[in-house]
Design goal:
The structure holds two protein chains of two kinds. Chain A contains 13 helices and no strands. Chain A is an all-alpha fold. In chain A, helix 8 crosses helix 10. By secondary structure, chain B is an alpha+beta fold. Helices cover about 30% and strands about 20% of the residues of chain B. Chain B has helices spanning about 1-10, 20-45, 75-80, 130-140, 145-150, 175-180, 190-195, 250-260, 275-280, 310-320, 320-330, 360-370, 385-400, 415-420, 435-445, 460-470, 475-490, and strands at about 55-60, 85-90, 95, 100-105, 110-115, 155-160, 165-170, 210, 220-225, 240-245, 265-270, 280-285, 285-295, 335, 375-380, 405-410, 425-430, 490-500, 500-505, 510, 525. In chain B, helix 10 (about 310-320) packs antiparallel against helix 12. Classes of the chains: A mainly alpha, B alpha+beta.
Chain lengths: ~325, ~525
């Protein structure tokens, strides 16, 4: 990883971190308000149709749901300022424990799919740039197909093919890395492919367009005239020059994949943050919703920071600007 | 983000070369990926774990692991760690569980229990009469718990010996065998230390064959149970490990069953049965839910026509139950015109055909009530267990007799329940329960959710009072009379008894549900052969 060494980059890092504080505050406030607008009632859901009105009111009171919204928000903010995210109103487990227990699943999925999109997408894009005829058309076609297939459908298709018909991978579930690295990898293959496919298409198209533009620039002709090997020109000089917009796209893919995990985790029955976010929202479990929002926002902040650092690595001018 | 985009737009050539260290890092990453993927591809083979581990797919995760909540929709999560005082068998009879014997006192106003000796909780404490007393007190004070539905008039509990106690009630209180069974869960006793520590919502401490292994569990997703070393009946432990895995997507559940990742899936939609059969899986499809309309506004406060019994009866005649049952039950449902089916205490075979599909009769009744051209009717519904589809089907059929339905479908169950009082009628999917409990929570004057307009009927109230104090052999006759009134007054428009399906692999046995016990009992599930 590139370590910021110039004042400009250090300033960017500092600014990003400073901005994250009001950003988290704004996101948490908006989440709180939006949740209040969603119709529904956690106490009624838990008590169920068999519960009496007295049982419902008793539970509502014990959960603090009869308090005004502003009071509940103030209390949440106060607890968070002490590092306490509270407990889930639904299953009473500490929010931090619930989130941390699922973070590795979602990170495995999102990082895995972003890496897969980067490797496969860049290779396809380079092929498309170098072979403008058939390969270029193929990349375009793949991009369209990749974007057009919903990942839940692709997930079900992959399960039917590679878990049921040909039992290569497990159909569902997640195995922690520390339990078995091999089973961890096996449990990730199908969901990562399902999650990465739209990203591969986008990266391939971006890389192809960017590489084409770079390959037509004068400095490439100069390098060719100087007799540098073709592989060196493509991978060392052209690709690096074309990489910045691809990095931008990869950052966006990472962030979009966080949303994509909601569907993929459901299809593959994986205990990740996406599924937890849906569960918490449908259950009106406010402390958990807030926790998920804060974690997702923090992830986005970190990813944006890493992308800025990547620019510094790719383009020396960033380090001195 | 601004910086990111600016750099993207301003990208240009760079003469800097990639350092050797970074190249190695890149190569390492690529190798790691290739190894991971190739080992994955080479893994192959079945993922079945049948034998030492039983994995059950559950459609819901539980809000609490405390059986005192009485949340029987989450019964599997309680069954493994808590043996009940009394066990409900598939034929509807009861047998001893943790309690060896029990008996009602005069007029069903007391209930005496004698416990089995040598029973311990998983923490090693002895399960005795004092523990049962403390447990019932805990259940009655647990926020949101359903104990007050079953023990509402409890006045005292007398511990008459180390293993004996008597419960005393101010009003007749029948159905205590059922309340103390695994079906209603009030007899699943938790350890006094765990009660005092307030830990039972997230952990277990019962006298059942298994106990929760928290370290191997992911709350809200996976609950792993291991054998309870202090269990009193070791012959009832069939597995080294039982995993309850929440899988909300029915397609994913089927795939997990096909590949052997799970051996049993409970509470599945009836639409999964044909696919399961094609995959060589077995199934039981107990008729679990009574589905139809609850014609709540029986005094015509929001919709004047519903205040007339002839209009409510017309609605019953206007519904083609056989057609709707085919749609909702996918061929596995059973049409019904009463709020009970075979196996329920209030089931009366004569009522099955009380409202045959008869459009002419429906129109005749509407005309007699003063609505020859029909009327508009708002019906609330929710997109759970097919209620919205049911509502649409009924709306289409009521249109044939001039009743124009405005169906309002809610996406949130809590919001739906909260809005019951805003509609003259709602769609209903109600579990099968004895008449005395139906009266309390479905149609009696105190059934707040399902009787928002407080309908009353003196005949029903009188019969309910008789039912409470009746000996068990006389109770079904009274229950049937109550059903006759409910059907005659057309308080509901029942349409279909619909199954919730349990699917399982052929190497499993003991997934048993019947008309008399609609839920499988988790601890009975064992390897076949």
């Amino acid at each position: 990883m590139f370590v910021p060494e110039s004042p400009a980059l250090l300033r960017i890092v500092g600014n990003r971190l400073l901005l994250s504080v009001p950003l988290l505050l704004i996101v948490s406030t908006l989440t709180f308000l939006l949740e209040a607008l969603i119709p529904g009632d956690l106490a009624r859901t838990i008590v169920g149709p068999q519960g009496t009105q007295a049982q419902y009111l008793q539970l509502k009171h014990s959960l603090g749901l009869d308090q005004p919204l502003i009071t509940r928000y103030q209390q949440w903010l106060e607890n968070v300022s002490h590092g306490d995210f509270g407990a889930s109103l639904f299953n009473h487990e500490p929010v931090t424990m619930l989130l941390n227990g699922r973070l590795s699943v979602t990170l495995s999925l999102v990082i895995g799919s972003t890496l897969l999109a980067a490797v496969v997408g860049v290779l396809l894009g380079i092929a498309g740039a170098l072979r403008a005829d058939i390969a270029g058309t193929a990349v375009d076609a793949l991009s369209m197909v990749g974007l057009a297939i919903p990942n839940f459908f692709l997930g079900l298709l992959l399960i039917a093919l590679f878990a049921v018909a040909i039992p290569l991978f497990p159909a569902t579930g997640y195995v922690p890395f520390d339990e078995s690295p091999l089973d961890w990898a096996r449990s990730l293959v199908l969901p990562v492919v399902a999650l990465a496919t739209p990203g591969i298409a986008v990266v391939a198209k971006q890389t192809r367009d960017s590489m084409r533009a770079v390959l037509e620039r004068p400095f490439i002709r100069t390098l060719r005239a100087a007799g540098l090997p073709r592989r060196s020109i493509i991978f060392k000089h052209a690709l690096r020059s074309a990489a910045a917009p691809v990095v931008t796209v990869l950052g966006l893919i990472f962030i979009a994949s966080l949303g994509g995990t909601v569907v993929v985790e459901s299809v593959f029955a994986m205990p990740g943050l996406g599924g937890l976010a849906v569960q918490a929202t449908t259950q009106h479990d406010l402390p958990l919703i807030q926790g998920v929002a804060v974690y997702f926002t923090a992830l986005v902040v970190v990813v944006n920071l890493l992308i800025d650092l990547a620019y510094g690595w790719l383009d020396p001018r960033v380090r001195v600007e | 983000m601004g910086t990111m985009v600016e750099r993207a737009l301003g990208a240009d050539a760079s003469g800097a070369s990639i350092s050797t260290g970074r190249r190695i890092a890149f190569l390492s990453l690529a190798v790691a990926l290739v190894v991971a993927f190739s080992t994955a591809c080479g893994g192959g083979g079945s993922t079945s774990r049948v034998g030492s581990t039983l994995t059950i797919a559950e459609p819901l995760s539980p809000p609490s692991l405390d059986p005192a909540t009485g949340a029987n929709e989450n019964s599997d999560y309680f069954n493994l760690a808590y043996d009940p005082l009394i066990i409900l068998q598939p034929d509807g009879t009861f047998k001893p569980g943790v309690a060896l014997k029990w008996s009602y006192g005069a007029g069903n106003k007391s209930f005496s229990i004698t416990l089995r000796s040598g029973v311990k909780f998983s923490d090693g404490d002895v399960l005795d009469a004092a523990a049962v007393k403390g447990w019932i007190q805990h259940a009655l004070t647990l926020p949101g718990g359903r104990a007050s539905t079953y023990f509402g008039s409890l006045t005292s509990m007398d511990v008459t010996g180390p293993l004996a106690l008597t419960l005393n009630f101010s009003n007749p209180t029948p159905l205590l065998e059922l309340a103390f069974s695994q079906l209603l869960e009030m007899g699943m006793i938790g350890g006094p230390k765990a009660v005092a520590a307030n830990s039972l919502a997230t952990d277990t401490d019962g006298a059942g064959p298994y106990m929760l292994d928290k370290a191997s569990s992911v709350p809200g997703d996976t609950y792993t149970f291991i054998p309870n070393p202090n269990y009193w009946n070791k012959s009832n432990v069939y597995w080294k490990k039982v995993v309850l895995k929440t899988i909300t997507n029915p397609n994913t559940t089927l795939d997990a069953l096909r590949t052997g990742q799970v051996q049993v899936a409970v509470g599945q939609p009836v639409t999964s049965v044909d696919s399961a059969k094609a995959a060589g899986l077995k199934y039981v499809a107990p008729l679990t839910l009574l589905m139809g309309l609850s014609l709540n506004d029986r005094s015509g406060m929001l919709s004047k026509p519903l205040g007339d019994v002839r209009v409510r009866q017309a609605i019953n005649y206007a519904i083609d139950r056989t057609a709707v049952a085919k749609l909702i039950g996918a061929g596995y449902g059973r049409p019904t015109a009463q709020m009970a089916i075979h196996g329920d205490d209030s089931y009366d075979p004569a009522l099955d055909n009380r409202y045959p599909y008869d459009v002419a009769k429906a129109k005749e009744l509407l005309a007699a009530a003063g609505y020859p051209n029909g009327f508009s009717l708002a019906i609330g519904s929710a997109n759970v267990v097919g209620e919205d589809t049911l509502g649409q089907a009924i709306a289409g059929q009521l249109a044939n007799v001039g009743i124009k339905v405005q169906l309002d479908v809610k996406n949130d169950v809590g919001a739906y329940f909260g809005a019951f009082g805003k509609y003259p009628a709602v769609t209903l999917a109600f579990g099968r329960l004895p008449a005395a409990i139906d009266y309390q929570i479905l149609y009696g004057p105190n059934a707040s959710l399902f009787n928002p307009f407080k309908s009353t009927n003196s005949g029903l109230s009188g019969l309910y009072d008789q039912l409470l104090s009746a000996p068990s052999d006389q109770a079904p006759s009274i229950a049937r009379q109550m059903q006759q009134i409910v059907v005659q007054e057309a308080w509901f428009a029942p349409v279909v008894a619909s199954p919730l399906v349990d699917l399982y692999r052929s190497d499993i046995t003991g997934v048993t549900s019947t008309d008399f016990r609609v839920q499988e009992y988790t601890t009975e599930i064992r390897p076949a052969g």
